[in-house]
Amino acid sequence: MAARFTINEVQVGDVTILRLGGRLELEEGDLVFRDYVNRLVGEGRLKILLDLKGVSRIDSAGIGMLVSKYLSTQKSGGNIKLLHLTRRSDHLMDITRLATVFEIFDDEADAVRSFAGTT
Amino acid sequence: MGAESTPSRAVLIVDDDRALRHALSALLTAAGHHIESVGDGPEALALLHNHPFDIVLLDIGLPSMSGLDVLARLSDLATPPRVIMMTADDTSESVLEAVRRQAYRYIHKPFPPNTIVDVVNEAIAPAAALSFEVVSARPEWLEFVAPCTIEMAERIHSFVMHLEAKLPEDIREALAQAFRELLMNAVEWGGKLDPTRKVRIACVRTKRMLLYRIADPGEGFDIDGLRHAAISNPEHDPIRHLVVREEKGLRPGGFGLAMTRSLVDELIYNEARNEVIFVKYLE
């Protein structure tokens, strides 16, 4: 059994890094994640980097919530990017063709730098 | 998320590993539960006959009496506790016996420390009171009829995936993901998350393939009407269906069928599309 969903927040300049852990699934982490990102966007913290290294399981509801928050953050003038996909998450991004939607990074410094000059 | 808001319960730990008993006691006490612990089956049964416990964490490999034998005797109690089986033994016989005896969960040792707190907290939730019917518990044919709830789907998923523990990791992961997606579809869309409605689940194993069949109590769906699912998206726009979902007031998602189709070798719906079979070939 996989661990419960967790979020640890780190601020690097104006980029908010959310280190996600555990299960991002239907009625598990999906709503917690939604509310967390909504709060950040409400506070005007619009550069969000999601570190998925600790995510043990993700399902279609979790992926749907990632995309939904990506779209709503973009609508508010911000961006969500992904960091450290696990082999499993990477595979799911490929088969859902979401690798063509998100910017995905293996290196945290590169990911943080990529936000420079954006709103 | 966590123990702070969880009501305190009486938990009995039955394991012959003294260090593990101590560690689990400390974790669950810190989570606010009342803990007793014993090292063998007869001692556990004596205690259970004299004191009510909500949850029993039960090792299978006990010295004088197997945990599965203890589990079999717990149904005689006036108010049987919910039982979480703990073992390093993932043989299909052990898993199937735990299923037959309506164990709440079956968890593999070693496990991350917080896992046990999460499982205990799940087991004391009101939704955990629901039970499933075991139609067949043979290694080659496992079949359940279960209420349409997410919690029950999680339990069934957990049992079934323990049976597949010896498969290569990539096959096991693909099966786990596909099975979960289709089972959640069945209980959420077919069963409307109504515990009075039932989903029927069969898992058939042969030397060359694994076949899973899930029949939900819904009316099925029209594949041409699935504009809210990712399978309807054009090649160049993998998220167009999310706009449709938002218009319809549906939660974000809709990637389940697209994911499942890529994870298994065969995916076949019946005409009404309220029953689905998927197959993974092993050779």
Characteristics of this structure?
heterodimer, A: about 120 residues, alpha/beta, Transcription Regulator spoIIAA, five-stranded mixed sheet, 4 helices, globular, B: about 280 residues, Rossmann fold, Heat Shock Protein 90, five-stranded parallel sheet, 11 strands, about 35% helix, elongated
Overall structural class of chain B, as computed from helix and strand content, comes to alpha/beta
Query: Class of the largest domain in chain B in CATH?
Result: Alpha Beta
Give the neighbour order of strands across the main sheet of chain B.
6-7-8-9-11-10
**What's the main sheet of chain B like?**
6 strands, antiparallel
Question: CATH top level of chain A?
Answer: Alpha Beta
Query: Per CATH, which architecture of chain A?
Result: 2-Layer Sandwich
Explain the overall architecture.
The complex is a heterodimer of chains A (119) and B (283). With 119 residues, chain A is an alpha/beta fold. Chain A has one domain (6-114): Transcription Regulator spoIIAA, CATH 3.30.750. Chain A contains four helices and five strands. Chain A has helices at 30-42, 60-75, 87-95, 108-114; strands spanning 6-12, 15-24, 47-58, 79-83, 104-105. Chain A has a five-stranded mixed β-sheet. In chain A, helix 1 (30-42) runs parallel beside helix 2. Chain A is globular, with a radius of gyration of 13 Å. The model of chain A has no long low-confidence stretch (mean pLDDT 92). By secondary structure, chain B is α/β, with parallel strands linked by helices. Chain B has two domains: 1-129, Rossmann fold, CATH 3.40.50; 130-283, Histidine kinase-like ATPase, C-terminal domain (Heat Shock Protein 90, 2-Layer Sandwich). In chain B, the strands form two sheets. Chain B has a six-stranded antiparallel β-sheet, with helices on one face. Chain B has a five-stranded parallel β-sheet with strand order 2-1-3-4-5, sandwiched between helices. In chain B, helix 7 (169-190) packs antiparallel against helix 9 (256-263). The chains are: A alpha/beta (119), B alpha/beta (283). At the A-B interface, helix 2 and helix 3 of A face helix 5, helix 7 and helix 9 of B.
